[in-house]
Amino acid sequence: MSLPEMPRLKPFHNRRPIEAGCDEAGRGCLSGPVVAAAVILPKDFYHPLLNDSKQLTEKHRMLLKPIIEEQALAYAVAMVDNEEIDKINILNASILAMHRAIELLKQTPEFLLIDGNKFKPYKEIPHQCIIKGDSIYASIAAASILAKTNRDIYMERLAEDFPQYGWKRNKGYPTKQHREAIRAEGASSFHRKSFRWYDEQQTLF
Asked: In this structure, how many other beta carbons lie within 10 angstroms of the beta carbon of residue 21?
């Protein structure tokens, strides 16, 4: 079976330092955690499918997941749950999840590549924020895939106990089915209570 080849991503930002790419998944969801990953790839890592997780099918993300895990020099995945999100807001929760993932790395990075435009320094490690970095740098793309696949697996497991919300398919994102289920059933203990689900006329967004 031939695989579709994606645009080749940059293998690194700086040639010499040990770089970790960082990204998160689940920021726009109504339920569940935000999950982040940090990945240190070999400087010569290449796979023809590697790209921003949003540009890949679920099948291709799951194909890449074990390849990244086996070939990465180090990787880690961490989460911030919905209760923490409600306390500190989703932006801070996304950054905290990335900090937790970096902390779990078995190899200490010397430079951090962060997807997006907001980050808080982690210890003394220099970092660079890159908008749409997951479609530019291989390590950020790898992190986006690990964050997305691990979060999807987590939400599918939760869906077994909460089938009414359709999490097996929507993974907690605000689909019409999900929002109508909240209206009919009320919120679960895994919903983000600080998120607005209705407008002033009680119409679902």
From this structure: 31
Work out whether strand 34-40 and strand 19-25 pair parallel, antiparallel, or are unpaired: antiparallel
Mean pLDDT of the 86-91 span: 96
The answer to whether residues 35 and 202 touch, using CB atoms and an 8 Å cutoff, is: no
For 14, 25, 93, 189, 195, the CA distances from 82, given in Å and listed in that order, are 35, 13, 9, 9, 10
Q: What is the pLDDT of residue 2?
A: 53
Beta-carbon contacts of residue 92 (< 8 Å; ≥ 6 apart): none
- Find the helix or strand (DSSP H, E) in which 20 lies: strand 19-25
Q: Is 44 exposed, middle or buried (0-12, 13-18, 19+ CB in 10 A)?
A: exposed
Q: Judge contact between 13 and 22, C-beta under 8 A.
A: no
Q: State mean pLDDT over 6-19.
A: 86
- Indicate the CATH number of 1-205 among 3.30.420.10, 3.40.50.280, 3.40.50.1240, 3.20.20.20: 3.30.420.10
Q: What predicted TM-score, i.e. pTM, was given to this entire model?
A: 0.92
